[in-house]
Amino acid sequence: MEWSDKYKRPSRAGHTRSFGWPNPLIDPARPVFFTELSRHLNTCLRLGTLKTPISVCDIGAGAGRGVFEFARLFKRVARIVLLDPNPHLVESAQRMIETHRGKASSFDAIRYVCSNVEEFCGEVFEFVSCLNLIDRHSSPRRLYRHLFEMVKPSGYLLLASPLDFKNHITALNERVKCITELLEGDDWEVRFLTDLPYEVREGRVWLRFASQLLLARKTERNDRRTSSE
Ligand SMILES: C[S@@+](CC[C@H](N)C(=O)[O-])C[C@H]1O[C@@H](n2cnc3c(N)ncnc32)[C@H](O)[C@@H]1O
Hints:
- This protein is an alpha/beta fold.
- The protein has one domain (17-228): Vaccinia Virus protein VP39 (Rossmann fold).
- Helix content is 27%, strand content 28%.
């Protein structure tokens, strides 16, 4: 699996070109989701609704395009964990990201971990992302509890999902209709809630989802609860 914009021009959404024409059979996923995501986060940084995090973890990072965008965006980051249980994806992500090593210190801060989130315990981060995994998990609510525990007091959680649940993966009582349902009962300040196009190719078919995207910050109540526990 490769990033569809062939990595060298990662911020330019669009097609991989072959003999001057777009080659739709080469592209497994179009990067517009990630470039738009980056634009939203950049706006938050400029407005001060997101403070530059020092530690970042991307859960279910896939081919690493999200981590690549975070490393470009969060210049002062000291620790970025790319986490995915699929060794082929982790290896592919590492191969593509490693060519940027040395260009910015944030790229040197990336650690590649091949694991499920369920087995990756104990570390906490200022910024935790989980992009397009919720509807591919048997228990989104259990997944969310792990994410909650991984966010430091006053830290941020970035979630995205097209909420395209499948019967053979997620039972009906585990599903949510809106991503904010997962956060209910815990105190968060929602920084933005929007939809982004998320395009993936399955064989000869291109699927275009509207992925719901949420950035939330853990509130003071959670600060007190976490520090007194
Ligand atoms: C649909 S892909 C999304 C990849 C990428 N985040 C994106 O937005 O394109 C879901 C990813 O989650 C990973 N995954 C599946 N179960 C997981 C789990 N329990 N913990 C962490 N990652 C998981 C899969 O290996 C896969 O790479």
